[in-house]
Specification:
This is DNA methyltransferase 1-associated protein 1. By secondary structure, this protein is α+β, with helices and mostly antiparallel strands. It contains 3 helices and 2 strands. A two-stranded antiparallel ribbon has the order 1-2. β1 and β2 form a beta hairpin. It is elongated and about 90 Å long.
């Protein structure tokens, strides 16, 4: 190795220079290019849509974002609105 090659590069520490000169064959990644992703379809259209829930007795109109091609007659989670009848115990049964 010539004296020019052994000269310390500016900004490099002595340890780094010695490591670099020992390993002249540094592997270079072959595929540096990352292709732009190609999406198969157009983006879905979303609209701000009002809805009513059959679980509410006051017919309140609430809003949410929904896909433009989806239409629901009733709010999706209204089917989970199950009303339970509370149990009533007399004082004798409770003790």
């Amino acid at each position: 190795m010539s004296q020019k090659a052994r000269q310390k590069a500016s900004g490099m520490s002595r340890e780094l220079t010695s490591l670099y000169l020992e390993n002249q064959a540094i592997p270079v990644p072959l595929d540096l290019f990352q292709a732009k992703p190609k999406f198969g379809s157009k983006a879905e259209r979303w609209v701000w849509r009002g809805f009513k829930s059959s679980a509410r007795p006051d017919n309140l109109v609430l809003h949410h974002w929904a896909k433009a091609n989806e239409h629901y007659d009733d709010y999706f989670y209204a089917r989970y609105n199950a009303r339970a009848t509370p149990c009533h115990y007399s004082d004798e049964e409770y003790d």
